[in-house]
Design a protein that fits this description.
Elements (H helix, E strand, L loop, with lengths): L2 H13 L3 E4 L2 E4 L16 H13 L6 E4 L4 H11 L11 E5 L2 H8 L4 E5 L3 E3 L4 E3 L2 H6 L4 E7 L2 E3 L3 E4 L2 H12 L1 E7 L11 E4 L6 E4 L5 H9 L3 E4 L1
Parallel strand pairs: 3-4, 3-8, 4-5, 8-11, 11-13, 13-14
Antiparallel strand pairs: 1-2, 6-7, 9-10, 10-12
Helix pairs in contact: 2-3, 3-4
Length: about 230
C-alpha cells in the first residue's frame, strides 16, 4: 500500500469522523468507534487467505453453512466458497446463513447458492446485523456447520467477541450447528474478550496459521479441539 493511498484513506476516514488527522498521522476519534471492515483487511492478510481456503475445504456441497459477521476471515471464506469448482450447480449447491451484509451481497450473485440473511439492525462499521430479529430466523433453521470469526479464543474462557450484541448472534449460529469451525489467525488464540460466544470444548475445529505456538495447539487439542495450522 503506497503512502498516497494511506493518506487518501486517512482523509476519507476523517471525513467520516472515524479519526482525526494529525501532523504525520491520525488518531482514533473517541473510544466508541471501530475501524470499518474494509480498513482491517490488510492485517494478517496472507494468513487469513490460507485459513479461508482450509475452512472452505471443510464444507461439503449441499450443506447449510452459517457465516458470522464482523471479521475479515469469514469474508475471505465466503469468497473462496463463491469460486469453488464443485459448487457451481445443485439445488442448492450451498445454503449460506449469515448476519453479514457484505457476505450476503457477495454470495447473492451466485444463483446456485441459497442466501439467508438473519435480519437485524445493521452496524455500519462492520456490516453486521445484530439484535432480536435474528432470533426469529435462526430459531427456525438448522445448520450443518457454523464458521465463527472471533476476536479471542481461550481454552478456559472460550470463543469471544468485544461486543455483546455481536456475540449473541454468533451464539445463536453456534447453537444451530451440527459442527463448529473457528477461523482465527494466530493473534486470536490464548486471548480473552468481553462477550462469550461458546466454550472452547464446543469447537470442533480451529483453523489457524503456522505462527500459533506448539503449546497453544497442544492445549486446544487436549480440550478436544481439532487444530489445523496452515
Amino acid at each position: 500500500m503506497s503512502a498516497a493511498t494511506i493518506r487518501r484513506d486517512f482523509d476519507r476516514l476523517a471525513e467520516q469522523q472515524v479519526l482525526v488527522r494529525t501532523r504525520g498521522g491520525a488518531v482514533v476519534h473517541g473510544v466508541s468507534y471501530e475501524l470499518p471492515l474494509r480498513y482491517r483487511t490488510a492485517r494478517h492478510a496472507s494468513e487469513k487467505q490460507r485459513i479461508a481456503k482450509a475452512v472452505a475445504d471443510l464444507v461439503v456441497p449441499g450443506e447449510a453453512v452459517g457465516l458470522t459477521a464482523g471479521g475479515t476471515t469469514t469474508t475471505e471464506v465466503a469468497r473462496v466458497l463463491a469460486v469453488r469448482g464443485d459448487l457451481v450447480s445443485g439445488s442448492p449447491a450451498l445454503t449460506a446463513v449469515t448476519n453479514a451484509l457484505n457476505i450476503a451481497n457477495e454470495l447473492a450473485v451466485r444463483p446456485q447458492f441459497k442466501i439467508v440473511p438473519t435480519g437485524g439492525v445493521a452496524r455500519p462499521q462492520s456490516y453486521e446485523l445484530v439484535g432480536p430479529p435474528a432470533d426469529g430466523v435462526l430459531s427456525q433453521i438448522t445448520l450443518d456447520v457454523a464458521v465463527l470469526g472471533v476476536v479471542a479464543l481461550d481454552v478456559t474462557h472460550g470463543a469471544a467477541a468485544h461486543d455483546e450484541a455481536e456475540a449473541a448472534v454468533n451464539r445463536l449460529l453456534f447453537e444451530r450447528a451440527e459442527r463448529v469451525v473457528v477461523a482465527a489467525d494466530s493473534s486470536k488464540p490464548d486471548r480473552r474478550a468481553f462477550a462469550r460466544i461458546c466454550p472452547a470444548e464446543s469447537v470442533d475445529t480451529l483453523v489457524t496459521d503456522t505462527a500459533a505456538g506448539q503449546e497453544t495447539v497442544r492445549r486446544f487439542e487436549e480440550a478436544g479441539v481439532r487444530v489445523l495450522t496452515v
